[in-house]
Design goal:
With 241 residues, the protein is mainly β. It contains 1 helix and 13 strands; from the N terminus they run αβββββββββββββ.
Length: 241
């Protein structure tokens, strides 16, 4: 029995000694490897500097396939250095041209609005990005007042939707070699010398400015008649045979 007890005690001592040895063996093992940390590099694309587009509008004086020249009547609030000047704008393959009703080309006398990009701060060279083309066509009708050799006055009683500022006023219209005079329903060709004070008249005309421009003054603007339809002498009533 003594040897058996000694054997059990010895076995316990060996087991106890094995614990620190096992721990020591674990401490001698290399540390577990740490998974590599991935690093994401974000590349920031620099923003393209915004190009200042300028806006202005006016009456066309000449036009070709690669440029248009206009007398500027109104501008954007930051582009007033162009106001009142004659400006030529380049047209290229990227230029978008929008035609108003009845228009399919740009012609002298047309009113156009332009968005353009300048080559530098001097605005000496401009390339159009957008051009909006409108016929410089306005309408007024009323009773003829005074008639001269190259102009006539109308007491206006009816206008187009954009020309209402003329309604109720005496307005003078200039004529030129392109003005067409048509008499009565029969559309007989006439001339300014055929106009008589007091008869009814309807006028299609061009204006030297934009009626929508807050600075537009109809009293100092020039109106040029392109088409004049007047009543002419009244035909006598038919008599029964």
């Amino acid at each position: 029995m003594r040897w058996k007890g000694l054997g059990i005690a010895a076995a316990g001592l060996l087991a106890a000694a094995a614990l620190p040895l096992a721990a020591l063996a674990d401490n001698n093992q290399p540390p577990p490897s740490t998974p590599p940390t991935s690093t994401t590099t974000t590349t920031t694309t620099p923003k393209t500097p915004r190009v200042h587009q300028i806006w202005f509008a006016g009456a066309v004086t000449s036009a070709s396939s690669d440029a248009v020249t206009l007398d500027v009547m109104v501008t954007g609030k930051h582009d007033t250095q162009l106001d009142g000047k004659q400006v030529t704008v380049g047209i290229d393959s990227s230029t978008q041209i929008v035609y108003g009703k009845g228009k399919s080309s740009i012609e002298p006398g047309d009113l156009i609005g332009v968005k353009a990009i300048p080559s530098d701060a001097t605005l000496a060279s401009l390339t159009a990005k957008e051009i909006h083309v409108r016929c410089n066509c306005h309408f007024a009708a009323g009773t003829l007042g005074s008639v001269g050799s190259s102009s006539f006055a109308v007491n206006v009683s009816k206008t187009g939707p954009y020309d209402t500022v003329l309604n109720g006023n005496a307005v003078t219209f200039q004529v030129n070699g392109s003005t067409v005079f048509v008499q009565g329903k029969g559309s007989t060709t006439g001339s300014i010398s055929d106009l008589k004070s007091g008869e009814k008249v309807a006028v299609i005309f061009a204006a030297s400015g934009f009626f929508k421009d807050p600075n537009f003054n109809w009293q100092t603007a020039t109106f040029t008649a392109s088409h004049v339809r007047y009543q002419g002498p009244l035909q006598p009533a038919p008599t029964k045979p």
